[in-house]
Predict the 3D structure of the following.
Amino acid sequence: MSKYPSPCIDVCKFRRGGHCIGCSMTEAQKSMYKTLSKASHQEAFIKMLIAQQDVMGKFSAWEPAYLRKCKKKKAKAPLGLGKQIKGAA
């Protein structure tokens, strides 16, 4: 199983109650993701992050940006992301 790139999309402005306005991660979550070595753990983290974004709202720009990052790094997009976007990962 391949590993997934970080869900960070290089916005890194922690304004929404300590959550990044680009990806919704907190600084602690960003640090935690870096410690995950198994692809299954990374995928579970990204699934949790998507649920967090759904609850918080206003993260519609994250998915296309993350898919571009996956494609650039030649990594498989997790959880079936991007099925509706032609040419994505």
Notes: Residues 14-80 form one domain.
